[in-house]
Write a structure and sequence with these properties.
By secondary structure, this protein is of the alpha/beta class. Helix content is 30%, strand content 23%. It has one domain: Alpha/Beta hydrolase fold, catalytic domain (Rossmann fold). α8 links the parallel β7 and β8. InterPro entries: AB_hydrolase_fold, BD-FAE-like_dom, GDXG_lipolytic_enzyme.
């Protein structure tokens, strides 16, 4: 068969920039230097306007971090007009909290410094993540303007973001440890904090989004499964209530029957909820 096709461009092509080093931090026992990397999913150059961006943080109990593993599930957001920046951060065997937060803020500053290259609007940024990455997204949003967490390069850039979308994110480490349906993951909180949560309330407070919520906190969209055996859904309910009590715009969607890291979170209905939220708050 031989045919001539007459096509019009109905959607842009996509690029993937991998292995982009955004920071260098102490490596093996502090004796070496380790690159921290990110991946950028973006539309072909030549878009009429700079685009809003979503910073994505994968989960793994702060023990294992693969910033590329969820990329296939994030393409919907690039097709919808967002740049996606998926960020590697140090795991808890490499550094304890708040290193993960300072890494994430460094990634945001790096992208703002290179916004033109990736055709990103630096004033329209959201943070999104799942599980441990959801915790990181929440912490990034509630610590807007908290300079003690800005460490490293590009300090002339702000790490402020405009919206947060945690998927079944850990909220208060002590509550998550004590109230989860399984004790299999209790050790991850000790590894993250550098001490048992029960014995270190000051460490728990430093890693608890509730500590930093104010009436100027940016809008939140929370997603959580009702059958989550790792992170209690009640923790997202508590975070939602706290946000609302401070006058913060917040939505909580509970996915009936969904477990931790459930395929239900990857469905088109959820992508639409997220895209509609972002279109409202990243105008």
């Amino acid at each position: 068969m031989k045919k001539v096709l007459h096509l019009s461009t109905s959607r842009p092509g996509l690029w993937q920039d991998t292995n982009v080093t955004y920071a260098q931090v102490p490596g093996w026992l502090g004796h070496t230097t380790m690159d921290l990397q990110l991946t950028v999913l973006r539309q072909f150059e030549g878009q009429p306007h700079a685009l809003p961006a979503i910073f994505w943080f994968g989960g793994g109990g702060w023990m294992a971090v693969d910033h590329n593993v969820h990329l296939p599930n994030l393409v919907d957001f690039v097709r919808a007009g967002f740049v996606v920046v998926s960020v590697q951060y140090r795991n808890s065997n490499q550094a304890v909290w708040p290193a993960q937060l300072t890494d994430a803020k460094a990634a945001i500053r790096y992208i703002k410094a290179h916004a033109d290259k990736y055709q990103i609007d630096p004033e329209r940024l959201a943070v999104m993540g799942e599980s441990a990455g959801g915790h990181l997204a929440s912490m990034l949003a509630v610590t807007n303007g908290q300079k003690q967490f800005d460490v490293g390069d590009y300090l002339d850039q702000s790490s402020v973001v405009q919206a947060a979308i945690p998927w079944y994110g850990v909220v208060k480490p002590l509550s998550a440890k004590q109230n989860s349906a399984s004790s299999d993951f209790d050790f991850v909180y000790r590894n993250l904090l550098g001490g048992e949560p029960e014995d270190n309330p000051e460490l728990v407070a430093q890693a608890d989004p509730h500590t930093f919520i104010t009436d100027s906190t940016v809008p939140f969209l929370l997603l959580h499964g009702t059958e989550d055996e790792v992170v209690p859904v009640d923790d997202s309910r508590s975070l939602y209530d706290d946000l609302i009590s401070h006058g913060v715009e917040a939505d909580l969607y509970e996915l009936q029957g969904a477990q931790h890291m459930d395929e239900l979170f990857m469905q088109p209905e959820i992508a639409k909820i997220i895209i509609d939220f972002l279109n409202t708050h990243l105008k």
